Amino acid sequence: xxxxxxxxxxxxxxxxxxxxxxxxxxxxxxxxxxxxxxxxxxxxxxxxxxxxxxxxxxxxxxxxxxxxxxxxxxxxxxxxxxxxxxxxxxxxxxxxxxxxxxxxxxxxxxxxxxxxxxxxxx
Length: 122
What we know:
Elements: E1 3-7, E2 10-13, E3 18-25, E4 33-39, E5 46-51, E6 59-60, E7 68-73, E8 78-83, E9 92-99, E10 111-112, E11 116-121
Parallel strand pairs: 2-11
Antiparallel strand pairs: 1-3, 3-8, 4-5, 4-9, 5-6, 7-8, 9-10, 9-11
């Protein structure tokens, strides 16, 4: 079992950048695929990005391609989401999650952090 804690959220203006971090403890971090998801008010939780346990096989939802970068450091038990060129529609609570399955389906991720708020103002 792995515990996850996100950090790095905040308030930023349109076009700005934020770097989210996800710290893992317990379990064997390097054996889990990691995903980032977000949930805006009144909307369902949606997939943002995922990275294979090796650091390869990265995937993004179309709306963030070219703007967001997911990465991980297995030695530090950390996952990251670098977010550039932020838009108001990126405003949401962002969650990191861990799974044995390589998937974009949030229901297949058993381990979740508490979330960190990202607010992009115009």
